[in-house]
UniProtKB/TrEMBL annotation:
Gene3D superfamilies: 6.10.240.10, NAD(P)-binding Rossmann-like Domain. Pfam families: KARI_C (PF01450), KARI_N (PF07991). This is Ketol-acid reductoisomerase. It is an enzyme of class 1 (oxidoreductase). It comes from the Bacteria. It comes from Sphingomonas rosea.
Amino acid sequence: MLTDAELDPTPITAKTVAIIGFGNQGRAQALNLHDSGIAVTVGLRPGSARAEDASAHGLRVASPADAAEGADLVFLLAPDEHLPGIYRAIEGSLRPGAALGFAHGLTIHYGLIEPRADLDVIMVAPKGPGAALRRLYTEGKGMVALAAVAQDATGAAWPLALAYAAALGSGRAGAGVLRSTFEQETVSDLFNESAVVWGAVPAILEAGFETLVAAGIDPRLAYLECVTELKLLADLVAERGIAGMREAISNTAEFGAASGGHRVVDEAVKARMAAMLGELRSDAFARALQQEAASDYPALREARRGARASALEAARLSLKGEPDR
């Protein structure tokens, strides 16, 4: 982990940066850079509802092509599935020897974008949502980030990537910058999203809830037991690690965890995880994401409808005293 003591901020101090997009990561990164004294222009499509917010924070707003023209570093921070089209639209505006940046390696690793040979291609990937990145920065803290270089046309890509991470606040005490690669960041991130935190954990919560309800337990109690305690778990793991978390709970809970966890997550589950990892190493996921976007997200819309209509969501609303949607 590199911290501010090892990071040189000067490679970016006199640079002009274009941030394309002002959503989850774009807003946070643009504001953090601006507050670090970096000249930032936000690239947004004409008529974007986010332009007023960006301007209100003292940021220059232009079209993506105009923002990219003359910029030393252009960071693409729109949703992954839109980045190939954005790159095609701005490629002619990128000056020779400019740097192209990403917060996720997907489009480069899977070849959805093939940057010009004269461009540096870097990645700085904060390991958390944009809102948290911004909040930590304003509190004088930082968020861990990965840095990587896919193409070093000028010989200055690595110093620029690390300086960018420092300007985001990722080198501050309690955080740090880890050198990585586009492949490792992409595959591990997709694996986490599909098979661990964002994929498997909610599925386990739902399965536990459904098992208790099917056995006659009040759905509200099933929700409290299987879902609401997740925050307690996450807080304890973040503070103490998994070993420390187990030491912090009651003997009853610890004994139940020790005797039950491996029966749910057994060797068959690990084998399926390994199979999923193998699938993610190919470009099948990236291509499917492109097709999903081109079809106006039918699978995502159906999944959202199913989640809103579930018995688990009804139990949550009942506990909050809200009517069913």
